[in-house]
Amino acid sequence: MRLLHTSDWHLGRSFHRVSLLHAQREFIDHLVQTVRERQADAVLVAGDVYDRAVPPLAAVELFDDALHRLAELGVPTVMISGNHDSARRLGVGAGLIGRAGIHLRTDPAACGTPVVLADAHGDVAFYGLPYLEPALVREELEAAGPGHTAVLQAAMERVRADLAARPAGTRSVVLAHAFVAGGATSDSERDITVGGVASVPAEVFHGVHYTALGHLHGCQTITDRICYSGSPLAYSFSEADHRKTMWLVDLDADGTVTAERVDCPVPRPLARIRGRLEELLDDPGLDRHEEAWVEATLTDPVRPPEPMARLTRRFPHTLSLLFEPDRPPGDPLASYAQRLHGRSDRQITEDFVAHVRGGQGADEAERAVLTTALDSVRLDETAGEVAR
């Protein structure tokens, strides 16, 4: 059985205030064309269909068009909700849409109920694990603990129990939206940290033939059977070096997996350039970036006049302008942003405690309080998205 694995469409998202709707429409065209030309037997969409819980109308219309075109091809699609989606909204009409071969899996309680498709070698059971917010689904799944690992383990126990009751030789595929240990992050993914921990071990998915992951925006393999497709478009300059692709996965009769990356259309390349303004304006080595979307970091010791206007004369698609003046090591004027770069919210709050107490850091009990507070804020934001 040939599977086309994609995820993280984020329909409705813009890039530094530039609409990506046209590029997202081109991706849907490419997806449909790939399904047709490469003779895919099923399409897997591993979450974050939309960029927010209440997407703009244009994004909903594009999603509707994609569903109609996939249904017309007669190729089944299995799709789960991600942490950006409203599971309730995305799942409206799922039973009816399923009759057209579009299988939406947004209910955590249905983790152990697969979509069963068949080929010449027998059945393949597809289990959809939508994004599982631990505080919201722990009781429903009867998870042993409060974190991501515990709720995913509980969901996978249901998967393995159902699979054990099926005929010998049934192949299995899991779709999940999660941060699996070993994956590389980018700046455009929403934080899902709980209790100071966001990632789950790959061993959680033991026992299935292929795990189609969503959430991380870079295409990558955790193991030869556990893969992220990544987002089809770049959504931050941290993805400038990404090769945006989908996975074309062949699942053989014995469950052997072979996979090939299929490139996605690139609306415009990304470039990150750095240096003093005059150097950036004069460097012939930067000619190749003149038609790219550009993030420029200026290192001039003193901010130059009209930097954006001058940059856009050479790089008309400059979208982001940053200032990081060259300073000697230990200079007290080093920017606050530089000191915070790469640090988590938990690390920043603990550093603040140490700062205001003259170097005495938070003890274990205080770190627990800080972690609980951060989790509470993030959960309130998630619950608000779900309610909408």
UniProtKB/TrEMBL annotation:
Q: Quote the SUPFAM superfamilies the UniProt record gives.
A: Metallo-dependent phosphatases
Hydrolase keyword on record: yes
Keyword Nucleotide-binding listed: no
Q: Which Gene3D superfamilies match?
A: 3.60.21.10
GO annotation, biological process: DNA recombination; DNA replication
State a single Gene Ontology molecular function: endonuclease activity
Q: Which UniProt keywords apply?
A: DNA recombination, DNA replication, Endonuclease, Exonuclease, Hydrolase, Nuclease
| All residue ranges annotated as the Calcineurin-like phosphoesterase domain in the record | 1-92
Residue ranges constituting the Nuclease SbcCD subunit D C-terminal domain according to the UniProt record: 267-355
- PANTHER family in the record: COMPONENT OF ATP-DEPENDENT DSDNA EXONUCLEASE, NUCLEASE SBCCD SUBUNIT D
Family, according to the entry, reads as follows: Belongs to the SbcD family.
**UniProt subunit comment:** Heterodimer of SbcC and SbcD.
| Role | SbcCD cleaves DNA hairpin structures. These structures can inhibit DNA replication and are intermediates in certain DNA recombination reactions. The complex acts as a 3'->5' double strand exonuclease that can open hairpins. It also has a 5' single-strand endonuclease activity.
The name of this protein is Nuclease SbcCD subunit D
Instruction: Say which species the protein is native to.
Output: Streptomyces olivoverticillatus
Name the gene for this chain: sbcD
